[in-house]
Structures are given as C-alpha cells and as structure tokens.
Specification:
Elements lengths: L4 E2 L2 E2 H7 L15 H17 L12 H11 L2
Antiparallel strand pairs: 1-2
Length: about 70
C-alpha cells in the first residue's frame, strides 16, 4: 500500500472522494487507522452519491476484472 501526496493533498483520498477508485480492503492492515477510516468513509460517500464509477449499476472491481480476463484467456 502506498500513500501519495501532491502539494499536501492525499491523491488516493481525492480519487476515492471523486468515485474514481476503490478502497482496496485487502491492504487495510498496512494503512494507519485514520487513513483506513477516511478511505472507507470516502468510498461510502461516493457510492451513496453515485459519483464516478458508482454511477454504473454494476461496477466491476479491478481485481475481479483482471481475474475474469485471466480465466477467459485460458
């Protein structure tokens, strides 16, 4: 897990708030408790507001998309 800041702004959090990213919960243990809470809440708010990828009725998580592509390639 990597936290990226640009001019003091958490870029990961900004993407979550805009509905342009998933909070990848498999790595939450590597996050600080404060970041874990902020990221989860940002994703929840974006989902409720149907922002970004959450406007889609059935968004597919990137890890599920990659798994499906790998399976279909066989």
């Amino acid at each position: 897990m990597c936290r990226i800041e640009v001019d003091g702004v958490d870029a990961n959090l900004a993407q979550l708030e805009a509905g342009m990213a998933w909070h990848y919960k498999a790595y939450t243990r590597e996050q600080s408790p404060a970041d874990r809470w902020r990221y989860a809440k940002a994703e929840d708010r974006a989902r409720q507001a149907r922002q970004g990828l959450w406007a889609d009725r059935a968004p597919v998580a990137p890890w599920d998309f990659r798994k499906a592509r790998k399976t279909s390639a066989r």
